[in-house]
Structure formats: C-alpha cells, structure tokens
Here is the input.
Amino acid sequence: MMIFEFEDTPLQTARMKVVGVGGAGGNAVNRMVDEDLEGVEFITANTDAQALKGSRAQVTLQIGKKLTRGLGAGARPEVGRQAISESQDEVRRVLEGADLVFITAGMGGGTGTGAAPIIGEIAREMGALTIGIVTKPFSFEGRKRERQAEQGLAELRRTVDTMIVVPNDRLLSVVPRGTSFRDALKKVDEVLLHATQGISDLIRVSGEVNVDFADVRTIMACRGPALMGSGFGEGDNRAQEAAQEAVSSPLLDDVSIHGALGVLINITGGMDLAIDEVHQISTIIQKEAGDEAEIIFGAVHDPELEGQIRVTVIATGFD
Here is the structure.
C-alpha cells in the first residue's frame, strides 16, 4: 500500500531532538550541526567534561558529575549506566516537549553503551517516538569492546521504538584503500547524519509529496530492528541508480529489505526532480520490499542537488 499526500498548508511541525551520547554520539552531533541539519534541537550528553567543551550542540549535559567528576566512563558501560541514573531528572528536563527523539551513540565504549538505553527508556516514557541510530565497533577494536557493544545493543533494542545499527566494519568496504582513520570516522558520522536527516527532512520539509509525523510514527513505533540504505544518482539514469544503490547499500550488511512491514522512502533532488523519477524509485523499492510492506514516501526539493537525486530507505518491522 502506498500513501500519497499532497499538501500546501504549513502544519505545526513535530518537535525533534537529537541526543548524541558519549564520544561517538557527540562527534555525530557536531557533524549534523556543521551540515546545518535544520528543524531539530541538538543535545550532547557525556560523562567527559572535556569532550563536552568541544560540543557544538545547543544543549550539553554532563551526566554523572558526582560519580565520574567529569573524567569520563573509562570504557566501562556500568559507569555510563550509573552516571545516567544520577542525572535522570536533567535528561527529562532537556527532552521535555519532544515528539521524536533520535539517540545516536557508538556502542562498545562506556558512556554511549551504558547511558543510551536509559535515555531511550526515559524518552519513550515521556511519550516520544524514539529512534536509536548507533554504530557497532570496528572488529580491530577487540573482542571485549565487541561484547560490550552486543550487550548495549540488546539493552537499547528493548527501550527504543526502532533501532538502526551501522556496523563500522561495513564502512571499510566503501572507503578507498589508504583512507585515513580520521576520514573513515567522518564517513561513520556521515551515515548517522543521513539516517537522521532521511527521517527528519520527511517531517520538516514540506515537499512535493508530504509525509507528516503520524505517518512516520506508523512505520516506526514499536518496530524493533530497522535497516537503512542510501543511494545517490546523477546523469540520465540517476533515479534507477539512486534506488538500486539504496536497496543494495553496503550498510544493509548483506541483508535484503524483503519482508519489511514498513518502509520509509525519502527522495531528495533538485528542482528538476520529475514525477516519473519518483514513481520509478518507489516502484524499485516496493518490488524489493515485497507486497506486505506499507510504504510511505516523501519527495523533497533541495536546490543544491540540481541534476542529482539522493534516496534514503528505512525498512522496519522484520520478525
């Protein structure tokens, strides 16, 4: 089933907040701020007072002040957990009024792994649709970090509505050989940015085909693990290229979106984005997902993408 919505009346938009938890979450938020991701409020939460000084978020939250005295969690998730327990009232205060909360973190360390699930729990208790967008560590970071990440992911899965997991190892297959570690980490931030923007732009930007917050809630509420892919196309065959790339994205970790119950598609292009291209993209993705999927999509104009198309697909509701 496809839902088309054409609207021209500006709606009272949903209030969206992005919480970057721990070091990796803070870096991802800085990237989103640098890229002028609009219509969302940014919050960075960390045990490490020094790291918070470098945050460009509107709101910074030092958690576990008494416990860690600003020194970080030393890669121990239990410290992250205790820190956030100490600071729950402040978390509630900064999340007040949010309809949608994105929680972004790197799993495997101390603060992100320990605190993100509890922030998810608080956000959901407050009635917000809660989406976790997190990374799994590179395998070269060691087994201990990997085990901590798996435990953190299991806890986060229980507390958020939908969770998108980006395995850092998969990024090694998309960055050229010889890429510096720093640039590889920037790529991680870029993926977290596209996942967040793919959803927030659908709600915020009044496009040619509009999607409102209720549509997003339909696809995302209580849906568990999600898959995300993004694709880019330019030239004569750009629509097909972008759609194919999105459904065969390396970030999908060699799994298909087939069998998803809900699929959200964001099609962003220049002012030359044509209706038949929107149709072509939606058809390719619908075919890939299968007949059971409820598909909601929005088409958004971005003058900077003249001659180009970017497609973000988020598939939810797997068994």
Observations:
- The radius of gyration is 19 Å.
- The longest strand covers residues 224-234.
- The CA atoms of residues 37 and 317 lie 27 Å apart.
- The chain has two domains: 16-200, 226-316.
